[in-house]
Amino acid sequence: MFTALKKGRVAAIGVIAVSAAVALAGCSSGSSSPLGSTSTGSAAAGTIVIGSQAYYSNEIIAEIYAQALEANGQTVTRKFNIGQRDAYLPALASGEVTLFPEYSGNLLQFYDKATTAVSATDVYAALKTAVPANLEVLDQSEAADQDSYNVTKAFSEANGVTSIADLAKVANVTLGGNAELATRPYGPPGLLSTYNVTVGFTPIDDSAGPLTLKALLDNDIQVANIYSADPSIGANDLVTLTDPKSLFLASNIVPLINKDAATPDVTDVINKVDAALTTADLVSMNGESVNDKKSSADIAKEWLASKNLF
Known about the structure:
Blueprint: E1 47-53, H1 56-71, E2 75-83, H2 85-94, E3 99-103, H3 104-111, H4 120-130, E4 135-137, E5 147-151, H5 153-159, E6 174-177, H6 188-195, E7 200-203, H7 210-217, E8 223-227, H8 232-235, E9 239-240, E10 253-258, H9 264-276, H10 279-290, H11 296-307
Helix pairs in contact: 1-9, 1-11, 3-4, 10-11
């Protein structure tokens, strides 16, 4: 049994180059706020409250948004490492948080589990109508960081597995990922209905971090759900399984904002950032976090300087 990591950034284990993803942050049962604080209601007038998931890569993007807005005269409050959507989406709806970096495909499936959209363009179009009336998505970025299924090179070669479909010919396969993956449309139920693949499931609540990677390398699990921009995939020579039937929706970076905060002075800045952000940038910045142990603030500052946006 794997235990959940405490909230915060996770260091790499031993000599393995691993992802520094952090564990899901739960809400205190005694708190009146989804953020685990006593504050309620909307943010102070004129203040942009930026949140992030309990995932280091998402925090980097949130920090880029924060510094870009500050450089353009906005007052920003940071509320990072909130957790997953059941925690922060109510805060966005209430105005306690006003801006959040999101992932288009997963966000769409949160609101519409029966969606048939698959491509980046179709997912974005569907998402714009799926979000609640008091929220809106800003411009979608080219940068993508989505769920993907990965196996070790040894497992791939021994079993002839290079696609998700190939898993159907392998017996006794166990999938590892965050606990909620068990019921996600692309989790075990989706594997069975889309690919006729039956898997066991081991919950490892570290958002594709060191415990997930270690379980895969130790063969405690044979398939790991790891985000596609995670540097541990390349560092450990993992094989990302192709997805010919589009079990995973395209999941590009997209800002989600409370409409009360969506003034042109804010949206123009964030759209400019997202237009400049690439998948290669995400991989590089994630590597700086994992391998170089740089802070999100330093990574964001250097990225903004390199793009000469403002």
